[in-house]
């Protein structure tokens, strides 16, 4: 069950940092999303392309959908016609594939580059050097139907606050450095239910929060 009190408290905190809130609705029903939508929330995040496409069809088209999962090239077509922000571009080949699908839809799709900041092997994303190279590449050869608007990162799942803080502050430093090269970078997406306060302290401009709003999955 979505929790309105929690939602309002989170929104207040996020707004006090002039950051943006993406409500992560993966696995949640259309009715649960409608409820959160009725509280004024308009940005939602999903991590499976087909689940996202089905929900987009069923829900008001004014809603802004963020893709936050691992994106497979052959699934881009399901979300390209409407997606608001693809937060998880982590290779040049994926970037080119999104660009091709965006061109087919006659759209420019906003994307974030996902940077690997956790020490867990399982989490996807570009290393700092790979991200630097990709940004240089995009700067030299701007894709026609993609705009790189910023960076996204996920910290290690740990209770060690100083470790999480270090990972987020490292990404913030890199973001600030890259903004000088590529001024289109203005979104820094970091922070989820367990660590969004730390992320906000460390310069996040967008948090992605699921369970604290929608309840446990
Ligand atoms: C699921 C998910 C979230 C939200 O996680 P919660 O812990 O439920 O807030 C945020 N970001 C990504 C990439 C996710 O997959």
List keywords for this structure.
eight-stranded parallel beta sheet; 217 residues; binds pyridoxal-5'-phosphate
Q: How does this structure look, described?
A:
- The chain has 217 residues and is an alpha/beta fold.
- Helix content is 43%, strand content 20%.
- The chain is built from nine helices and eight strands.
- It has an eight-stranded parallel beta sheet with strand order 7-6-5-4-3-2-1-8.
- The longest helix is centred in the last third of the chain and has 21 residues, at 161-181.
- The chain is globular.
- 43% of the residues are buried.
Question: TL;DR?
Answer:
By secondary structure, this protein is of the alpha/beta class.
Binned strand content: 15-25%
* Helix and strand sequence: HEHEHEHEHEHEHEHEH
Shape: globular
Q: If helices are DSSP runs of H or I spanning 4 or more residues, what is the number of helices?
A: 9
Biggest β-sheet description: 8 strands, parallel
Radius of gyration: 17 Å
The ligands bound in this entry are: pyridoxal-5'-phosphate
Report the span from N to C terminus: 10 Å
- Structural class, please? alpha/beta
Rounded mean pLDDT is 97
